[in-house]
Design goal:
The structure holds two protein chains of two kinds. By secondary structure, chain A is mainly beta. Chain A has a single domain, classed as Cupredoxins -  blue copper proteins (Immunoglobulin-like, Sandwich), CATH 2.60.40.420. Chain A contains one helix and nine strands, in the order H-E-E-E-E-E-E-E-E-E. In chain A, the strands form two sheets. A five-stranded mixed β-sheet of chain A has the order 3-9-8-5-6, with no helix packed on it. In chain A, strands 2-1-4-7 form a four-stranded mixed β-sheet, with no helix packed on it. In chain A, a hairpin with a 7-residue loop joins strand 8 (94-100) and strand 9 (108-113). Chain A starts with 6 loop residues before the first helix and ends with a strand. By secondary structure, chain B is mainly beta. Chain B has one helix at residues 2-17; strands at residues 41-51, 61-70, 75-86, 89-103, 113-123, 129-140, 144-156, 163-174, 181-189, 192-206, 209-220, 228-238. In chain B, strands 1-2-3-4-5-6-7-8-9-10-11-12 form a twelve-stranded antiparallel β-barrel. Chain B starts with a helix and ends with a strand. The chains are: A mainly beta, B mainly beta.
Chain lengths: 114, 239
């Protein structure tokens, strides 16, 4: 049952190197978004390009909302009256739309990386 | 804390791989991502059709149906029923399975995102049990996502020799648009060695409802793996 094969060892070595290279940027700039009446405030958020940021989202509504953006590759549910954190970037300069999955008709916005 | 925990688990994986043992049967299935969405529920169907030059295995197809739901913003549980249809015999239910996914890190917080998957499976008509722990690692670039699943598996029961095994599944995916993402998958285990193209996508079908699909053709690269393994997965996500 035991076979010699170096393939998995190489895979594990690769994962190990990724772990070793894991870096944590402690001082990410923090930006805030508020969900109120199924709208995002501000609806346009300017952030620095080329830098990872911490986005603090507060849902002031009583119902849950899902922050979602294919362009940012992020999706997260925020319960009513709760806060959450989403890490974004580093982004190239440009515009990245996002929306509220549960209230798509109104909850729309974009992040502008400059 | 998470880094330490992941480090310890990774050492365990590495030690197990040192024994160079692999999982029985085809492990071509699904490459898991590490994320859990709060409130999410899911109905899932997966099929794997084996096309092979050997008549005995040509036409074998495995069907898996599952139901899962998030227990919190970090844990997701799912149960499955697996049936197999082979040319030599009629379709029959083969096994039951339960799994628990644990999202270890916040998406994008570190260079890589990490998760763990615990699975327990019981063969329906045989005294064969299987328990596994899978380390899920994901790295994202602006348009590419690489995901790796490394599993430690233990099989036991009266109808099988108790043994430790390992398996690897990996995926590299290009984020073309949400409805169509091409990629490539690779599988490596005791009786499985294959690589091939996959395409996946997402349809939004209402408030908080999504249909995720994935289709792929994994080409066997050793004598144990079927020549072409056609896979199709469908997930209906709802809240």
């Amino acid at each position: 049952m035991m076979r010699c094969n170096s393939y998995l060892s190489k895979v594990c070595l690769g994962v190990g190197l990724l772990l070793a290279a894991q870096s944590v940027v402690a001082d990410k700039p923090i930006f805030e978004l508020i969900i109120r009446d199924h709208l995002f405030y501000p609806s346009e958020l300017v952030i620095p390009a080329g830098q990872k940021i911490k986005l603090l989202i507060t849902n002031e509504d009583t119902t849950p909302e899902e922050f979602e953006s294919y362009e940012l590759n992020r999706e997260k549910v925020i319960l009513g009256g709760k806060k959450t954190v989403i890490f974004i970037g580093p982004l190239k300069a440009g515009e990245y739309p996002f929306f509220g999955e549960f209230n798509m008709a109104t909850a729309q916005g974009k992040i502008i990386a400059k | 804390m998470y880094k330490k925990l992941v480090g310890v688990l990774f050492v365990l994986v590495l030690l197990s791989v040192g024994f160079q043992v692999y999982a029985d049967g085809s492990t071509i299935d699904k490459v898991y991502h590490p994320y859990v969405q709060l409130l999410e529920k899911e109905l899932e169907y997966r099929v794997l059709y084996e096309q092979d030059s050997r008549k005995a295995s040509d036409g074998k197809n495995r069907h898996k149906v599952g139901y899962g739901q998030a227990l919190s913003d970090r844990f997701f549980a799912e149960v499955y029923l697996t049936g197999v249809d082979q040319p030599s015999r009629n379709f029959k239910i083969e096994s039951y399975e339960a799994e628990l996914k644990w999202q270890l890190t916040e998406q994008g917080e570190y260079d890589n995102d990490w998760g763990l998957l615990f699975e327990l499976e019981k063969e329906k008509n045989k005294n064969i049990w299987e328990a596994s722990t899978t380390l899920i690692a994901l790295r994202e670039w602006p348009n590419w996502i690489a995901t790796g699943n490394i599993s430690i598996i233990y099989e036991w029961g009266k109808d099988i020799d108790n043994e430790w095994e390992t398996a690897f599944a990996g995926q590299l995916r290009y984020r073309f648009n949400e409805r169509l993402e091409p990629g490539i998958e690779i599988y490596q285990a005791q009786d499985t060695q294959g690589i091939g193209p996959v395409v996946s996508g997402l349809w939004r079908i209402g408030r908080g409802k999504k249909l995720n699909w994935e289709f792929g053709a994994i080409l066997g690269t050793d004598s144990d793996t079927a020549d072409i393994n056609w896979k199709f997965n469908l997930e209906y996500e709802f809240q």
